[in-house]
Amino acid sequence: MPPRPSSGFSLVESLIALLVLSVALLMGLPLIQQQPGIVRRLDAQHVALREMESVLEAMRSGAMPLESIHLPGGHGQPGLWVDVQPEHDAPAGLYHVTVRAVWRIQGRDFEKRVETLVWSPD
Fold this sequence. Notes:
By secondary structure, the protein is an alpha+beta fold. The protein contains one helix and four strands, in the order αββββ.
């Protein structure tokens, strides 16, 4: 009587498949662990950009004077500072304004800078 071909997986094949699956899952683990830090960093950047935008809009509307200012950030982000440096070197009432936001999150410093022209009818 000829030997019957076995159907299904052997124990060794099953163990190797389980090992490959375990390695694949472990390779994705660092990404899952880094996600909360990435989200906090992106949220802090979003708050900093909103602060910069509100400062620029206040200057454009005349609600904030066109002078050098060092402002603490708001919205629950204590490590945020916004620096404003206007320069009156452009012609016809234009000010070259540099707004810089600096914030600290997870022990690292981050910075964003925006440069624009703001008109003021002196």
